[in-house]
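Q&A FORM
Asked by: J.P.
Topic: structure of histidine kinase

PROVIDED:
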Amino acid sequence: MQPVAENTFRTVVEDQTEAISRFLPDGTFLFVNDVYCQLFGKTPQQLIGQCWHPGAHPDDLPMIEARLREMTPDNPVVIIENRVFVANGEIRWMQFVNRGFFDAAGVLKQTQSVGRDITQLKRVELSLKESDERLHRAQAVARIGSFAMSCDTETFSMTQETARLFDLDNTGVTTFAEWFSRVHPDDQDKVATAWRAALQGAPYDLTYRIVVQGQIRWIRAHAELKFDGSGQLVKAVGTVQDISDIKQIELDLLESDERLELALEGAGLVLWDWHIPERQVIAGNRWFDLLGYTNEELGNDENDWLNLINPQDLERFRQKLAAHLQGETASFESEHRLRHKAGHWVWVEARGKVIRREKDNSPLRMVGTLLDITLRKRLNDEGSELLKRFESLIRESLSPSPGRTEKSNLADSLTRRQRQIVGMIAAGMTSVEIGRHLNLSKATVITHRRNLMATLDLHSAAEVTRFAIDHDLLIWK
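REPLIED BY: S.T.
REPLY: Here is the structure written out as tokens.
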């Protein structure tokens, strides 16, 4: 009966697609099937009774021998994956299931090994590993991590970059509580509310702060949740991105804009930005103070802005603007009136410059400022009017007036001392000051003063001053 059983066993083994062999503890082959022989390009006669290892990759031999030594009566099966050189010299990956057979004393008597080609599986694993490595590198460069969560919302898996961003153990798994402890205390309510809403079907796209090793970082989190027919969570996948640098740039820009706005406000300037091909004008924040319109009321249409210009100033404005747009002037400057929402006109000084042109020199974008010069214009007008009045008075003073010839004769008849006193009175000196200057008593000066005004028919200090100016008698202190 034994030969029949042996033949049946051999037939079954030969029908297998795996490479099967049996060998002693020292590696001597007792049996090999045809698949094994075909795989390594050997005949049974070349293998049975021989201890043959060249089929295994030399770098894997120490590992193979160490793993085989792990077989015990309590652990009789050891699975080994290693590289081998097949018949054509190609390197293939094999998985060998090794089962040890022990006697009653626990001594290993022989080992049966069943191997199958896992080269394609290894290639897939290697491809996945390389893909994972590329993903990890890309996530590390972009500082974007990812995570996945099943219906158990208490734990979720995560990538290395997620663990790094949140300073979590790099085990690939974390708990909701451990992750949530990293969220900034001031943002925890916001994050918790957003997540509860997401579990009810709301989109989850949130920016919040975390505290990692004492530093505050900004995170943008996005997640997609899938639910079954009853509305229960099936799984959730998402990303977390460190946007601290972007947030810092935003804060710096905001601070810069605030400084610019303060500077413009301090200088009384209003900013404008003209996108010429689109015929769009973007206004600064202080147009309401200048013209009483809100940004919504003004809009961005170029024609709406041009319609604010006083018709009497429009042609001159267009000429100066065209000259600059055509590159004839280095900058644009114009003084013109704009209509206030209340109906009156506001004088402005406009300055601007084209900052971007096409290769053919056609303008693309122009920026500039407006300054309210209404008060300056009013003061200039009032100053001009006052100057005209002064000129009229001067001409009037130079013209002969009734009685002037007679007073000139009286001036010529005055003594030197009387001429001095008239000049000092006109200069605003008091009687005491005149007496001190001429070594006269106050009473004497008063007498001279009274007599002179009666003789010259002068009745006030202003008339004395006018008389002194007309006859070159004015004495400066």
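FOLLOW-UP: Residues 131 and 399 are 104 Å apart (CA to CA).
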